[in-house]
Amino acid sequence: MSIFSFKDADALGSVISVDTAAVIIRVDDLDCLKRLQVNRLVVLQSSKAGQHLIGVVVKITRKPDDRAIAAGVPEDGDEIAEPNENNLVRITLIGTLLDKVGEAKNVFRRTLETVPEIEANCFSLEGETLTSFMQVISNVEIDGPKLSLGTFTLDDDAVAYLNGNKLFQRHAVIVGSTGSGKSWTTARLLDQIAALPQANTVLFDIHGEYRPLKGDAFQHFRIAGPADIEKQTGIDDGVLHLPYWLLGYEALVAMFVDRSDQNAPNQSMVMTRAITEAKQATLGDPQYKEILDNFTIDSPVPFAIDAVLANLNELNTQMVPGARSGSEKQGDYHGKLSRLISRLEAKRADRRLAFLFQPPAPCMEMGWLENMVHRLVAGRGAQDGKTGGIKVVDFSEVPSDVLPLMVSLLAQIIFSTAIWTKSAQRHPIAILCDEAHLYIPERAQADSGDSVAVEIFERIAKEGRKYGIGLVVISQRPSEVNRTVLSQCNNVIAMRLTNGDDQSVIKRLLPDSLGSFGELLPVLDVGEALVVGDASLLPTRIRIAEPESKPDSQTVAFWDEWNSQDAKSDTANAIKSWRRQSAGD
Ligand SMILES: Nc1ncnc2c1ncn2[C@@H]1O[C@H](COP(=O)(O)OP(=O)(O)O)[C@@H](O)[C@H]1O
Ligand SMILES: [Mg+2]
Fold first, then answer.
1. Total-model pTM
2. Domain C-terminal end among 309, 340, 371
3. Final residue of a domain: which of 72, 97, 125?
4. Ligand 1 atom, smallest distance to 554 CA
């Protein structure tokens, strides 16, 4: 059955002019005209049975009838007649709804197979009819699990559905100026994911904003801070260490070797050799023979950093036999590794980097990685019951200079695990990257931590689909997010965006035919979004529903707070936390 059952009496008006995709409707009833708004959807009768044309209102004008103008201004004393008016609505046709195509019912196509005839009726698309139409265009099964972020701005009776498969298959971006509602939208999306028994998502939470998200579906991790060193807490307490041995070659070089040093190439080479030897030492046990045979510098194998340091120190001070018998000369690397060694020692001793260099003993065992990866990438049903499938990883205690390396390390672990999982056993996972401009930057210095991170995310953006990894890039500065990654995102959830550079980046992601839709970006309300892409065939303006548990708002009500009767101060604790580098309890 067709989702449209319009009666002629419900018509808003009828067609008076057609010019390919542009149609003009004359509306006689002023009340009907008032109900219409720009960007609303309308349905037009098609000349073919079983088809309807869908259009979007682009302009509404109310002007006097030309004939009335031609008749001239009434002279004094003439009875003033009720002026005739021409109420015109300009519509752009955007597609066709076919009642039936083969076996399929209610199929929407973004093509125009016919044009409307003169006098064809035009109807408003609203309420339940709009909801059903949305289900059709997002390809949502009527009784299947639904993904809905909210309702239409122009019609809050109509629920806006998205296609949950398509949203994650070809990646998505959530953008908007600070305070426009990105975090709430993310939380709302997570609410919807949380309802699914095999939910599987990792959220990179850079400021610890998502701590309040509660429920069986959620599992919270915090990257260990300085205060966790003595406590010897581990993954079972929700404290995640990222021991240095997980870092790949590029990341190790970015971290330890100063590219501006003239000895940099030597340092990289010697470090690689020392780490390779140290990892091989771990694999000395016969049970690891197979791993050893296929070993590379990037293999995730624990090694003793002390052994590496000792090795480097030895080379740095080495004397070798000289040309004359009995004489000695400096070895090839004598004195050339000093800066590398001091960087390594400084990082190792840095309490802010304790999660990397001072891991508790269990993190140094081969088996630890399996446990950690399982907690991170297994879906809800495969977790051991007490933990959920939505994994929120709090990076708030990670220093900003190593943030790109650390976030991308987790992304890399998720990606590598997916690659090495047999496709029949692979469970799809979505990676949600909040504040993505901080670690997937557009401008990254060569060989820096930034460029290592960008490379990993670019790879996931390009190849993730094949391995069941969906990326959701969330940022207030889309113009500062890597363009390659952004251009791979086929779904855009754009909230209010005021900066011109950011707007133009997002407008470029919108399909050409939607040019004017982008003009709405700066005027959207808080919590309002334009949604365009694979997951929704037609661009829609949605009011995002409130999430069940709300992220910690970063929005402070200055005036209200200043007007409050209660004094608020906690400097002593702030200084204490600052000194021990942990907000702690
Ligand atoms: N969908 C919404 N409905 C109502 N209020 C919202 C909505 N989204 C955001 N807000 C308001 O805006 C504030 C900022 O939202 P937030 O998601 O933290 O913004 P962002 O992450 O874009 O900086 C919230 O604290 C809330 O008060
Ligand atoms: Mg936010």
1. 0.85
2. 340
3. 125
4. 18
